[in-house]
Amino acid sequence: MKKILCAGLLAILVAAPAYADDVKVTKAWARATAPGQDTASIQLTITSKKDASLVGVESGSSQSGEIHSMVMEGGVMKMRALDSLPLPAKTPVTLGEDGNHLMLIGLRKPLKAGRKLPFALIVKFDDGRTATIRVLAAIKPLDTASDAGHMQMHMQH
Ligand SMILES: [Cu+2]
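That is the input. Now the predicted structure with copper (II) ion docked in place:
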């Protein structure tokens, strides 16, 4: 990562030299989109060296991004947008397993399996500083069986 200083990464290092390094993101992935689907759910593991919160997600590939959690409401699983998600120091937080995930809304083009989806996470440290972490998510082939339920929920947003 550090060896490749593309223009975008350089900008981050200049803006937040110490802090971009304090957050590690691994196993980021999304599913390829089905025809007509314009949202993408991203799963990943994020670890911050210091107490912080995940406060945003954005991508040039979509109009907006949200942090989502799944909650039971009257026996029905629903998604709710979170303003922030706590990232306790040195504790890996996995978005995906527990129903939390990142959602890109208004995709500008379909996600194709095998390509990469660039996006950025906005992390706010408890000392008030913020950092932007650029990540590439792997795009996995569409799994229609397990994705149908998720898409259904998003149509009800
Ligand atoms: Cu969602």
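Strands lie at 23-31, 39-48, 52-58, 62-73, 76-82, 85-87, 93-95, 101-107, 116-125, 130-140.
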